[in-house]
Amino acid sequence: MLPHFPAPMISTQLRAALLTLTIACMPIARAPAAPLQFNRDIRPILSENCFQCHGQDRAHREAKLRLDEFESATQDRDGFFAIVPGKPEQSEMIARILSDDESERMPPEESNKHVSPAQVALLKQWISEGAVYERHWAFIAPQRPVVPSNPGTSWGRSPIDAFVLQRLTQEKLTPSPEASPATWLRRVSFDLVGLPPTPQELDAFSADAARRGETAYSEAVDRLMRSPHFGERLAMDWLDAARYADTHGFNNDSTRTMWRWRDWVIEAFNSNKPYNEFITEQLAGDLLPSPTLDQRIATGFNRNHVINSEGGIIDEEYRIEYVADRIRTVSTAWLGLTFECARCHDHKFDPIEQRDYYRLSAFFNNVPEWGEDGRVANAVPMIPAPTRAQQATLARLEKERSAAFEAADAARAGWTWNESLRTQVEQLAAAARTATDANKSITTIEIPPPDAKIQASVLPGATFDFTHKDGLSIAFWLRPDAGNPKDVALLSGTNHQGSPADTSFGNGREIRLINGEIELRIADRLPVYSITVRTEGAGLRPEELHHVAVSYSGGKTAADVRMYVDGREVACRTIYDDLHGGYSKRDFLVATDNATNAARFLGTLEDLRRVAPAASSETISTLFRATALPRALGAIDSGSARSHETRWIADALLAEDAKTRDTLAREIDATERLLALRRTFPTTMVMEEMDVPRQAYLLIRGNYDAHGEKLDAGVPEKLLAPWPEGAPRNRLGLARWFTQPNHPLTGRVVVNRFWAQLFGTGLVKTLEDFGSQSEWPSHPELLDWLAREFVDGGWNVKAFLKELVLSSTYRQSSQVTADLVARDPENRLLARGPRVRLPAELIRDQALAVSGLLAARIGGPSVFPYQPDGLYDSIVVGAAYPGTKWLLGSGEDLYRRSIYTFWKRTMPHPMMLALDAPDREFCTVRRSRTNTPLQALTLWNETGYVEAARRLATRMIREGGTDDTARATFAFHASTGRRPDKAELTVILRTWENLRTNFAAHPSDAETYVAHTGASAVDAMIPPVELAAATNVASMILSLDETLTKD
Amino acid sequence: MSCCNNYERMHSRRDFLSKAGLGLGAAALAHLFRGQAFAGAQVASPGSHIGGLPGLPHFAPTAKRVICLFQSGGPSHLDLFDDKPVLRQRFNKDLPDSVRQGQRITGMVASQSRLALQPSKFGFQAGGKSGTLFSELLPYTRGIADDICVIRSMYTEAINHDPAITFFQTGSQLPGRPSMGAWTDYGLGQLNENLPSYVVLISVNKKGAGQGLLARLWGSGFLPSKHQGVQFRSSGEPVLYLSDTPGITRERRRMMLNGAAELNQIQFEHAGDPEIETRISQAEMAYRMQTSVPDLMELSKESQATFDSYGAAVHEPGSFARNCLIARRLAERGVRFIQLYHRDWDHHGGLQDRLPSLALDVDQPSAALVKDLKQRGLLDETLVIWGGEFGRTPYAQGDASHEKYGRDHHGKAFSIWMAGGGVKPGIVHGSTDDFGFNVADKPVHIHDLQATILHTLGVDHTRLTYRFQGRQYRLTDVHGKVVKDILA
Fold first, then answer.
1. What is the complex's ipTM, to 2 decimals?
2. pTM of the shown model
3. Residue A581 belongs to what domain range?
4. What is the pLDDT averaged over residues A251-261?
């Protein structure tokens, strides 16, 4: 039990609150006696009041005067000097600030800016002392500061504490006492795994801490860091920064599949991937030598931005927005700079020019992407991204297929053609032909005779009706001549006329031959809104005759497509898979398309068959044999047989032979199983580079179509850090630039964010901005020490966090006196431990955990827990895109951690939204923390929360002991991490008794209530009145401030 | 910010205390009461508003509140408000290049071989003493011609729905900025302690079509999320999670809440964190909302005459008519910003059939709301805005001579109307060229409109700012001029 304060002195508290009003408005000020520092004391005043017109934005510079540079500020201007070092009374700047003449006074009236008398005094002092300028602190690489010694005190375990104590001593404050072991354990559990410790863990740890002291603390941290929930907890904040979501955003806001990226993040933290690699793989995993699948998945970081599929938008306008979003995200997350301010003009406050912005953007400008994409599925570029389990199955199936191929090849090895086989082959061909003829689903389509140089001919559109829900297969024989273009239509019912900017461009369906591969396109609008699937490694060589079949089973996704060459299914890859609308039944052109100057296919295209509904692989195989065997025999007779043609015969015969039948069947079966598995792989969006990079330009006033000067990729080297020697001028080089040990920002920005995750506020409060407008750090030396420690220690996240959570600073009690609240409402001085309301996700996760409902499985597709019915009604787009309906889950899906809840950007889960989660439309590194009536309503009535209360009540009764006291204690302990004291217990028991009496008088209400508490089974052994009353008590406990707070 | 939070915290505590006697433990209450003297001393004019920034309003407001009747999808100004006889003479003729001036067009008509002019098929008639012309599709709006100010010279840079509607509501085409209502809540605070100060009402879209709406349109952007709009829903519970689980009576909720308040108070005495007191008072407000919101949505005490004035649809939950009536009730109760949405004005095709049906949905109720407010003496202090994110093209989408013709998006010129709240009644502001394509006179940009809305609320749009990412942001970015001409 925690000791309580004596009753607070009210008058003190009121005075304290009054002080808060005045003090809290000031930035974390220097201690009075400290010497003046430009960066801490002067720059913020100049930046706020002067730089907008007298800073580095040359387009808006007034009077050609810069006050951000010594040279300009001290220049002779016809006898006037803005600043005369050592002589404030001669400095025009001071005179102007103090001027009574409104037309003279600076800053001008209309700017709404005002320099206070205290600030004027500082400016005068600074000029008196010589007007020494410093580069903005955050642009100078951090040096490892000397750890201060604090003589005469024994407080502190870590260098962190020494820095904190030094500041406290300056402020004449003392640290708070250490929190109890149990309080610390609950705090650190939320910070490292995001779940509360159980009462058993709390008690065991308290005992362990008493017995083994530091060792117990250290091992507890290790245990938490070994938990796979560590990765989930750390990922949570990163998902905000990386604007991860399950939908594309904008008007249509349909579903995307990026959870493989989300799981990559979880795994990265769990495996303690060094943070420089964490950065590199996300920025440029695809550009690493022989990138692994994981490294390519990681690049999805730069594809998490919103993508617009609204019909009629201008592609380039939005493509540019995506590039801009990458700049915004990367610069916020790793530079802590508001780079996007330089998109339309030079930065007003930081020395970032518009050119710098577009040079940085050039790194992200080469993605083969479209402005309009993502209507019903992922936007390109995307890759298949099998899960770990699927990868294991894939490896097994590949092995099986290799074995099957080897066995089949061995069976073929002894086989040679001889005339005695002819009869059997003819019989097989005849049987196949009979079967084919009898198959009513197969239709022969007449086209010009074989072996003619094909002339364009037209087939009625209805011949190939892909709109039929049962699908369709098309089969033909193909022998391309050597002179064909790289890309030519074989059968085309697609409109290639008109402007590609038009929303109906490229509507139709077609089969093309592209570099020896067969491609099927079923399109609402080319290229994006289509199913475009291409064989992979079919390698149809010129002058070779092959049987080709394309099959589409009608489900409107690429997974519904199969391709066959010579009767066997072949691998294919999906190029686009975003078909949503209809497509015309335009007539088909044979061997060409209707584009202006369309190429014409040269060679043989014959024996065209349509199979509807879509053929099975067996039908395709039979169809192949019926025509292939006679062709092969003919080739043998004419002495022109090629090896693959002879093999058609071999395979047909070996498949009949009892000795080899199974071997041959296994070969086909193993391939088909492998390909079937591949079709189930989720895709994920990734970064790729175009073969020929796009030229980057400065965009005048940020307009997508106003090209200014041509620019090459680059970074603000003079301002921040040099380009690493030998680094390629691409995203990989950029990653090296970010992660060089002496980068002034990357390390600081990252450690500051980790600090804020633990302490609630960063050492630099503005986590997103370290520029000249940022607030002076509360502990600049500590920030630099942490940055050096982190970077020089190998970017080791776990080791770094361990140091933080074991520090005495972190271990302080969060109890606070009114005086201290007044003095330091946000706890910037760290004279107490953190006390912060839990983020939205953890409030729900905790309820799931203490109620025993939590389904702890890690990763996988996002899930749909309870959400109020009809939330999307009359709000989401009126088209049946995926993601426009909430598909309520069942079973375990209702109880997964909140990081897995389906995140719809334009309408996020209302519980998350009420508890301050952002919508994730763009990078957010700092959430607001508010306290509203809607939060109270949510915690009282949200189905999942009510269900958690009912289950916690059940546990109270089942596991908590035999009387109300024990049961109340159990629930309180599980929820707050401590046992209630006597006063608290009295309140709980009285409330419980009141509720029980009340429900007992209305037993049907109790039954009604219990019946409305979620999908999980109700414990029928507990009388409804008991359960209802206990559930209300549990609900009360789950909504307590202390339960919702990490303290 | 922290000072403001504290300021607000003080107020909410005072607010809570003014509703005292709600079952807190005696000791806790005694403690909180002693705080009242102090908190009260901080309030300049008790009861005026809760929260908000010191120093606001900047000057005397002409409007206490705003009702925005947003018509999502882009209603055709040419068929509703802006009669163009020249178009009638030029049916199916090409839009002159001199008029288009290289204006970009959307991908929906990008490959249309011509931009053929399409006059309105609907007649226009003059209304009221002012003689303002309205389409025959808006007879009721014509009936309030002398109460409203029609702006025919609106324009926006956006040409697609998502950016355009986001621009209208947040002052930026891209996500991330606070909506108008969030800015007002942040700046001016609440007038009512039992209801949210920013309420959103969305028509049920029976036709099931239309562009999606987005939570960001009533979101708080970078402002603290408590400033986001609260949607009052037409089916299910009016506010999410408002209704207690069946079986929980008011009495039982009170029991649970009393227990929680006492436990939180004990925790406050122990931990000293002022957030705990805020949590206690916010729970009390939640409890009050559980009564005040259903009371608000309960329309049975409205007179038959009132129902009749809004039209028969007023009896259908989720209709625009019903939402207009609810908007009036919200206005009466001091809700600061009331935002309605009605969708499906996006008539790329079939305009001739679809436009009349949309007009039928909104014409009578919009006019009834203005009259109702006027009758109750509320119009003078309530600013009503009617309009969409852009207008539509004077050229046809599809074949102009085909009955299924439509019109594409058009941001260069469109019309809205405003009423009450200090806006001059019975006037027309601005005009377009003969084609309704470009603004000819007195252009009003979206930022100008926003500046004007804030102005009526007593807010200088250049001085309501919030520091985010190192700079001061405002609703109107660095633009916006108050349209003084339309202010009384």
1. 0.89
2. 0.88
3. 395-683
4. 96
